[in-house]
Specification:
10 strands, eight-stranded parallel beta barrel, binds ribulose-5-phosphate, two-stranded antiparallel ribbon, alpha/beta, globular
């Protein structure tokens, strides 16, 4: 029962002090509702305004790709160093501990494979299930210029509308088919279309020429995919250039989990993204951490013998 005794009348109204109305930190997100902003503030670090998303959703069309054969073994050790996890609901339920407090961006499209036309996707998760899984955001791919362009855009519109109903942001991934051009004109077009349709943030690829124009022309944050595995210094340089030219972080997979030392690599990427560490310094950090981890591993093996 509510206690009616001893109710003290409020006196401290801070008269003369204006109530602060702080602007939301994230590009293009100032007019969103509280729940939407709160979820985005879990994805993007409010201090740096950036994020390191760890992408391990590749299996939904690639099967057990290298580095993702046993997600329970390869990805679990990386989770403490990621800001966000991006995966499918199948892997989330089967291989990721529900005790993690990392926000999840849920892959909500599927229906094709590497053996068929990549753009032929459908929405593959109902919003009810995304809510059950406590998704911080939902995501699908748009394939601009591909055979199923229209269908993939319809998928995005559907996710945005259902997500908006419940305050869940949508990440639009700009998908690239095998034969598609990957230049600033293409990604400028694809990212802008996604933002105009209401995507709350967009994943693109880094391009050497004109990336700054892509980020400037997109009214919401852009994060970059890592793409195919590169030497560590090249991947760190790509991340550095991307954030330096306006990206709000990375959504990286293969360049982390296929690295010689994924635990060291994700920490080096994080230093670049959040602290603006220069690529060579970040590589030194990677090598130091790698040596430490290998020495620890050798020690453990010796003790076992
Ligand atoms: C798969 C994806 C991946 O999440 C994305 O490509 C990021 O991974 P990588 O850094 O390996 O490219 O969207 O469709």
């Amino acid at each position: 029962m509510a206690d009616k005794d001893d109710i003290k009348t409020g006196k401290d109204f801070g008269l003369g002090i204006r109530q602060k109305n702080k602007a939301f930190f994230l590009k293009g997100s100032g007019a969103l509702d509280w729940g939407m902003q709160n979820r985005l503030a879990r994805i993007f670090n409010p201090k740096s305004g950036r994020t390191v998303m760890l992408a391990f959703d590749h299996g939904y069309f690639q099967g057990p790709a290298s580095g993702l054969e046993r997600i329970d073994l390869s990805i679990a050790p990386l989770i403490p160093y990621a800001d966000v996890l991006m995966c499918t609901r199948g892997v989330l339920r089967a291989c990721v501990s529900s005790e993690t407090n990392k926000p999840v961006v849920l892959r909500c499209s599927g229906g094709q494979s590497i053996l068929s036309e990549l753009s032929n996707e459908t929405v593959a998760v109902d919003i009810d299930d995304a809510i059950r899984l406590n998704a911080a955001a939902i995501t699908t791919q748009i394939y601009i210029g591909a055979p199923y362009e229209h269908q993939s855009i319809k998928n995005l519109i559907k996710l945005i509308d259902t997500g908006n109903r419940y305050g869940i942001p949508t990440l639009a991934v700009t998908g690239v088919g095998a034969d598609m051009k990957r230049d600033a004109r293409y990604f400028g077009l694809a990212t802008r279309i996604a933002a105009e349709l209401g995507a709350h943030y967009v994943k693109s690829y880094f391009v050497e020429e004109g990336f700054e124009q892509i980020t400037a022309g997109c009214p919401v944050p852009i994060v970059i995919a890592g793409g195919k595995k590169l030497p560590e210094l090249d991947a760190l340089t790509m991340a550095y250039k991307a954030v330096d030219q306006g990206a709000a972080g990375v959504d990286m997979g293969r360049n982390i989990f296929q690295s010689d030392c994924p635990v060291a690599m994700i920490q080096a990427v994080s230093a670049v993204v959040h602290k603006g560490e220069k690529p060579k310094k970040a590589l030194d950090m990677y090598n130091t951490l790698k040596a430490r981890i290998e020495a620890k591993g050798k020690g453990k093996r010796k003790r076992k013998k």
